[in-house]
Amino acid sequence: MIHEAVFALAALWLTVLVLACLVVLVRSRSDAGRILALDTLVLMLIGLLVLWSASEAVSYFLDAALLLAALGFIGTLAAARFYTRGRLF
Q: Which of 37, 40, 60, 64 holds its CA 20 to 30 A away from the CA of 75?
C-alpha cells in the first residue's frame, strides 16, 4: 500500500517535471536553453520508464530506458557540437 502511494507520487512528480521541461523547451529563446531543456526532458522520460518498469515488475522497459539514454546522450553531444562549431564533423 505504501509502495503504491510512493510510486504514484513519484510518477506524478516526474510528469509535472516533464511538463515543466516542455514549457521551457517551447518558451526558451536561446538554442543552448533548448538543448538543455531537451536533455532534461529525456532524463525525466528515462526516470518514468524506470519507475514504470519497477511498478510493473518487467524488465523490457529498462531496455527502452537504456536505449533512450544512449540516444539522448549522442543527440545532446551532436546538438552541443553543432551549437558551438556550426558543424557536426
A: 60
**Residue 53: how many CA atoms within 13 Å on its side-chain side?**
14
Query: Are the beta carbons of 72 and 44 closer than 8 angstroms?
Result: no
Total domains present in the chain: 1
pTM score of the predicted model = 0.87
Q: What does DSSP assign to residue 49?
A: H
C-alpha cell at 51: 519507475
Domain assignment of residue 52, given as a range: 2-85
Predicted confidence (pLDDT) per residue in 31-61, tens digit? 999 999 999 999 999 999 999 998 888 999 9
- In the chain, what is the greatest distance between 2 CA atoms, to the nearest angstrom? 53
Instruction: Say which DSSP state 58 is in.
Output: -
